[in-house]
Amino acid sequence: MTVEDSRKIFTPEQYPPWVVFSNQQKLNWLNSHLEKIWPFVDEAASELVKSSVEPILEQYRPMILASLKFSKFTLGTVAPQFTGISILEGGSEGITMELEMNWDGNPSIILDIMTYVGVGLPVQVKNIGFTGIFRLIFRPLVDEFPCFGAVCYSLRKKKKLDFTLKVVGGDMTAIPGISDAIEGTIRDAIEDSITWPVRKIIPILPGDYSDLELKPTGVLEVKLVQAKELTNKDIIGKSDPFAELYVRPVRDRMKKSKTINNELNPIWNEHFEFVVEDPLTQHLVIKIYDDEGLQAAELIGCAHVRLNELEPGKVKDVWLKLVKDLEIQRDQKNRGQVHLELLYCPYGTTNGFSNPFADNVQLTSLEKLLKSGAEPAQNGGEINRRKDVIVRGVLSVTVISAEDLAPTDLMGKADPYVVVTMKKTETKNKTRVVPESLNPVWNQTFDFVVEDGLHDMLILEVWDHDTFGKDYMGRCILTLTRVLMEGEYKDTFELDGAKSGKLNLHLKWAPQPLYRDS
């Protein structure tokens, strides 16, 4: 049989009868046959799952436990039910299939737990309820039966995973906190062992299938700039927000920002890096919480960005609306917005910037985009920086004009002026007052010496001048990323915290790059 002949097996005219059935008929066929062969599948799959998950359990083992392993693992007598099927890809390289599955099984799973005080606890995992989508990849197509060399399987999406823990012949509450710790460990192990983009490879025919293995493809740079109009979760005072960010929700890859106390419009300006394995399907998730001290943090809202929406090598500035649940699309409540700058840098790509530093200097991907043609580190982990680049220079800010400002006095006018501040140094300048105008023109330029442009911010606040005080009219907050990239630009910015109003600005950057040992 030739390769061409094997491909014809997957053409409609060559399909066996069950393949051209409707989806429901295909599912009935699959479920019927799975029930018949389930005793054999149980034996093989139980050993496969045990060998895959047990090492990860040990990796995430809570510190209060000396050991954590399976003493018994079988999937039971109840076969899962397939409820959906789809073919995502076909062609000469391989076939990708996704199967939605429900399983309310009767497995026999017992964890053998040993504490540091010598107490052994056999913990039974029971009442398992699971709904999810498994991805199967048949690749490569070959000219030998069964016409593919290997099968990759992965949990593409976990919709529901419920289970309970019970100490065999004992009480789970005998050791405080043990139940939550074990449950978290099990969920982390599942996430890190078989959840996409992690995949397990089963060779069917002899061959080298290393190209199917999970490999990092690039680095995602994230600047968490600010949030605004967050929901207040506190009865007294305001929320104390912090952010949690991740591409893969496993413990050692999740990032956490600092907490901003008593603030519903927090400014973080923090930078994070994430390793990306599959930019076509992965996404960045950000969750904003209210810090409750010793109690569990309360979720304010969450958002996500699909990485396939990012243009490699180009910074994307986004405001994301926060929702209660990423799976529920009909959330109309205003929970606030979060401001991010995103940059995806695939491995193996270069840019047109020359590098003024030695080749062994480790830079972030954003620093490389600004200053280097070197590639990001490809070790799949955090980038170890020996030196930090200081993007130093002079920032010229021209406050051109404002439009459609909200009136502040009884005559429907205002006397506006702008205070321009560099956040890190708190250096300030202010424009002249333009009397009785809601569309003032200033055309005033201010120069700031900036010592660290990658991590500084520009804050512009509009005020109404009054003989006996001043009234706040709104503000805009800008990172320096765009002016560092473009060198100079003009743009119009909406005022936050105001009913209406825009600022017209002209920014220009004159660089004086330095570096220092970290």
From TrEMBL:
SMART domains named among the record's database cross-references: C2
Compartments it resides in: Membrane
Keywords of this entry: Calcium, Lipid transport, Lipid-binding, Membrane, Metal-binding, Repeat, Transmembrane, Transmembrane helix, Transport
Entry's Gene Ontology molecular function annotations: lipid binding; metal ion binding
PROSITE patterns cross-referenced by the UniProt entry: C2 (PS50004), SMP (PS51847)
Entry membrane topology: Single-pass membrane protein
Domain C2: 199-320, 375-493
Gene Ontology CC: cytoplasm; endomembrane system; membrane
Superkingdom classification of source: Eukaryota
Domain SMP-LTD: 23-205
GO biological process: lipid transport
Pfam families xrefs: C2, SMP_LBD
Task of the protein: May be involved in membrane trafficking.
Family label: Belongs to the synaptotagmin family.
The name this protein goes by in its record: Synaptotagmin-5-like
